[in-house]
Amino acid sequence: MQMASGASKLVMSFMAPLLLALTFVLLSGARVTDAAGVAMVRNGSSLSSYGGGEGDALISSRGRSLQAVAASSSSTTTQSALFSLDSYGAHGDGARDDTQAMAKAWSAACASPRPAVVLVPAGRSYLLRQVTLSGPCKSSITLMVKGTLVASPDMSNWNEDNRRHWIVLRGVDGLAVGGGGTVDGNGEGWWENSCKINRALPCKGAPTALSFHTCNNLRVDGLKMVNSQQIHMSVEDCTGVQLAHLSITALGTSPNTDGIHVTRSKNVQVSDCTIKTGDDCMSIEDGTHDLHVTRLVCGPGHGISIGSLGDDNSRAEVSGIFIDTVQLYGTTNGARIKTWQGGSGYAKDIVFQNMIMNSVKNPIIIDQNYCDSAKPCKAQGSAVEVSNVVFKNIKGTTISQNAINLNCSKNFPCYDIALQDINLKMVDDSGSTESTCQNAKWTKYGTVVPQPCTGTN
């Protein structure tokens, strides 16, 4: 049997990888100038060993990871200005407020006519309240986090106007963020005061730890993020993004702590990341186009979710999503698309392939009747249209019998759904798996276990 034309074209369209050429600043034998204008040189340094002391040298390179560039030769050099938080009055003791030091270092770096590095020195913790680091900047800029940025534990530092953000980078083109350091959201206090933990409390939003808004040609490489107040990293209204070698960790019981959230952005690559949180490892929302995710380890958490889309009768458009080579451990969901009734728009041209499920509750799920509300959602006629979706080479174990669930809209059925080479079994062979379908137009290719669709169709 031949694959439906839409799904076939989709698979072919992802054969060519996205190409991004981005500039990074790293250590070598280049001439470096500190904020005071004093020239410094030290040869033989690398990014992984860079402690931020005087004399560290930096060069720029294109299109490679920070780790790879660190090992490259220093034949091409450029002058780069170094702006350490310590030069702007930071305490670095994790107790006293260093927000102004960060803001001043960023302002000076952004005004530099030469490529600039804002340095968070190694071995120290810098306490920050809410801060926005804005562009455009005069030259390329790198935020080099070698130490730890830690959020203030005082929730009163966030008023109603800014409680949804902690560190925001806005309008900075060609931005690079890396260094192997840590961004610590100090989120335990926020979790305890979440309505999802304490049902008696009113629902109020908590901060996203690290937000990128309108940052084109962005690269974030080699960063640790822990215990965000809510979402760990959000990419919004950006074009040309590479996220790589990220480690994102929070308790499996922490509410709404998505790992990576992408919305209204296009040409995004995510690779070689490990995400262990209390919510979606990745949440992919309205306005996301041409997203390529590969080599992702996920769990605990809620798996990889496209949506939710179309809430509050809104229009949502998502296309060109390619999820490849993923391992999931103990997640609530595996590959999921979720849309609200009453919405409009589309989620199309989507591939989930080469996924290993380990004790996943809902390995494959499309839900066009999603409802995350204390009250039952009222049935509505419209829905976000879901089409041209491929689930391919997905294997492993589930803790629930219903391994494949295609719960689609009566008025706008999902269509061109391809199920290919799937083998999902109960943990410890404790029974046989099943599948259910409602209003779904699907096609099977190769061997599919469980047999689709044993429920109503």
From TrEMBL:
Entry EC no(s): 3.2.1.15
Active site residues of this protein: 302
Subcellular location: Secreted, Cell wall
InterPro entries: Glyco_hydro_28, Pectin_lyas_fold, Pectin_lyase_fold/virulence
GO MF assignments: polygalacturonase activity
Reactions catalysed, as given in the entry: (1,4-alpha-D-galacturonosyl)n+m + H2O = (1,4-alpha-D-galacturonosyl)n + (1,4-alpha-D-galacturonosyl)m
Main location: secreted
Coiled coil ranges: none
Superkingdom per UniProt: Eukaryota
Broad enzyme group: hydrolase
One Gene Ontology term from the biological process aspect of the record: anther dehiscence
Keywords assigned by UniProt, alphabetized: Cell wall, Cell wall biogenesis/degradation, Glycosidase, Hydrolase, Secreted, Signal
Signal sequence bounds: 1-35
Entry similarity comment: Belongs to the glycosyl hydrolase 28 family.
Entry protein name: endo-polygalacturonase
Organism: Oryza meyeriana var. granulata
